[in-house]
Amino acid sequence: MSEYSISKVSPDDKRSNQLIDQLLLGEGIRRDKNLDYTCAMFDEDFNVVATGSCYGNTLRCLAVSSDHQGEGLMNQIMSHLTEYQFSKGNSHIFLYTKSTASKFFSDLGFYEIVRIEGKVVFMENKRRGFQDYLSRLGENKKEGKNVAAIVMNANPFTLGHLTLVEKAAAENDVVHLFIVSEDVSLIPFPVRKRLIMEGTAHLNNICYHDSGPYIISNATFPSYFQKDETSVIESHALLDLGIFIKISESLGINRRYVGEEPTSQVTAIYNEIMKERLPEAGIDCIIIPRKEAEGTVISASTVRKLIKEGDFSHLTALLPETTIRFFESPEAEPIIKKIKEAEQVIHY
């Protein structure tokens, strides 16, 4: 075992962060944009010989200098980060790694959830974590000839979202609606979930599910070992679909409904991959044209932009009555303030 020291690196420690960036680049890794804790291992001359970071309950940007590989340094970095996660109350930990490194992390007690060969492996520290999640979902299996799914963030729930759900509900025996529970949106998960359920309460064939830790947003998918933004989007789509296909097998889902997104490069690429890959798994991919209002497509981004600008008069054309009632209530005031203070409310 080495005598090197491991310590937290603060964002304003310019020297250490520069050394971390150099180490990561040397190992073919770019610093991920989503990090909330970083540590480094220093030698006796205060050079960085290994590093690792966290975002929420995920481990990211793990690297050991090529001059020191084989010395067991990554084991120590992993132990440090795991202790940090436990101190934050996170016992269920996830990581993303290159396909070539997955065996190493398997030996450290991580288990494969899904693999996109040549791109990325998604892993967790619970042997039956994902299987138990699928088993819990399976308890809500409903029989039907046509069983559909929708995955929705709804930040916030708009008339466009409502149109998509109503169409799926009208055309299928059962609709499993997965609400992205990852809480990184301007509108908190409990509010998003409530607005979705209130807005669709008139439909009697909807099964609501929290997405849990297995369905994540593109905004927090790690980009650090992808060569460019398109590769990041493609990797996220393929990984997400790998997980969704396993979920579909548990619930008997044979259709997935998604909204067309003419203004979003991310969603356009995602939809193209979905259209190609889902039928291979026996799942129809049904892309619905976006509902329009006042000559433009309805989007949650537009709603957030109007709120940021204080233009509430145009929201009635974009939002169901249940969502409007929420934004008119005192409960919404802190969220409206947060949206107005946000630098960026449009997602591309």
Automatic annotation (TrEMBL):
Enzyme Commission number, as recorded: 6.2.1.22
Stored SUPFAM superfamilies: Acyl-CoA N-acyltransferases (Nat), Nucleotidylyl transferase
Location of the N-acetyltransferase domain: 1-128
Signal peptide: none
Reactions this protein catalyses: holo-[citrate lyase ACP] + acetate + ATP = acetyl-[citrate lyase ACP] + AMP + diphosphate
InterPro entries, sorted: Acyl_CoA_acyltransferase, Citrate_lyase_ligase, Citrate_lyase_ligase_C, GNAT_dom, Rossmann-like_a/b/a_fold
Top EC category: ligase
GO-annotated molecular function: [citrate (pro-3S)-lyase] ligase activity
Pfam families named among the record's database cross-references: Acetyltransf_1, Citrate_ly_lig
Keyword terms: ATP-binding, Ligase, Nucleotide-binding
Domain of life of the native organism: Bacteria
PANTHER family from the UniProt entry: [CITRATE [PRO-3S]-LYASE] LIGASE (PTHR40599)
Job of this protein: Acetylation of prosthetic group (2-(5''-phosphoribosyl)-3'-dephosphocoenzyme-A) of the gamma subunit of citrate lyase.
Name this protein carries in UniProt: [Citrate [pro-3S]-lyase] ligase
Record gene name: citC
